[in-house]
Amino acid sequence: MVTIRWKIRKFPYNIYRSIRSSFQKFYYTFRSLTYNHYMDQSYAADVCMEPLVWFVDNFTHTIGPLFVVAVICLTASVVGIAYWIGIPYWWNRNPFFCIILIIIGHWLLLNVSFHYYMGVVTPPGFPPQDELITEVVSICKKCIAPKPPRTHHCSVCKRCILKMDHHCPWLNNCVGYRNHRYFFMYTVYMVVGVLFIIIFGFDLAYSGIWLSSDDYDDPELEGHPVKFNKTGALIPVTDILYLDTNSLVQDHINDGIELIHPWKKRAIIYMALINTGVLVALGGLASWHSRLITKGETSIEANINKAETLRCLNLGKIYRNPYNFGPRKNWKIFLGLIRESVANLLERFQGAIESITDYSPAIRNETNDDVEVL
Question: pTM of this prediction?
Answer without folding.
Answer: 0.70
